[in-house]
Design a protein that fits this description.
The protein is of the alpha+beta class. The chain contains 8 helices and 9 strands. The strands form 2 sheets. Strands 4-5-2-1-7-8 form a 6-stranded mixed sheet. It has a 3-stranded antiparallel sheet with strand order 3-6-9. The two termini are 26 Å apart.
């Protein structure tokens, strides 16, 4: 089993155990605007971060972008979400460098020619007879998933992670975090006022 797969399995076991013991965290596990979840693991010199958030928190809506302003908002969020070094402040002495960033979500899936295919499909759907499907299209839930791997030259010196997501995405108000680190496993809740994870 690869390192990343072992780490992911470990994070899932942690999340399952925390869900069983923390009712408040379980409530935030659902799709709640303003709230998101994150897994963070430090092992073998690598820091792995997994983020799951309603698209509303990061781009301000949950449908395929239909206007130029919405497309610009999605593109801006995509660029920023791929810059893990700007989203997580890591102890400088640890010498951590971003190895990879992956960002995924329905809101990012629109045609390169400006989303005309999605707009046409939306217009056709809007004028169709199936109002229930239209409501689902307009009011459906959409999440954004992002994952990051940082390689740290001296992971022993990584004592804190400053989560800067709140600064860049004001729609995010509450972040439930599962941490696997040198001190073991823990669950913490972050907010715009409390955004540092001590390892």
């Amino acid at each position: 089993m690869s390192y990343r797969n072992r780490l992911w399995v470990g994070m899932m076991v942690l999340a399952a155990s925390q869900f069983a013991h923390a009712e408040e965290f379980e409530q935030h596990g659902a799709h709640v605007h303003g709230a998101a979840t994150m897994n963070l693991a430090l092992e073998e010199g690598n820091l792995v971060v997994e983020l799951e958030s309603p698209a509303m928190n990061l781009v301000g809506f949950e449908h395929a972008p239909a206007t130029d302003a919405e497309r610009q908002q999605v593109e801006k969020a995509a660029v920023l979400l791929n810059k893990g070094e700007e989203l997580f402040g890591l102890t400088p002495a640890a010498g951590c460098k971003l190895l990879s960033a992956e960002v995924d979500g329905d809101v990012f899936e629109y045609d390169e020619d400006g989303g005309k295919h999605e707009e046409a499909a939306h217009d056709e759907h809007e004028h169709g007879d199936d109002e229930d499907d239209h409501d689902h299209h307009e009011h459906g839930h959409s999440d954004i998933d992002a994952s990051y791997i940082f390689e740290c030259g001296d992971a022993g010196k990584l004592t804190a992670v400053d989560v800067l997501l709140f600064k860049h995405f004001p729609g995010l108000k509450d972040l439930d975090v599962q941490v696997i680190g040198p001190k073991g496993q823990t669950a913490i809740e972050l907010s715009p006022e409390k955004h540092q994870i001590n390892l």
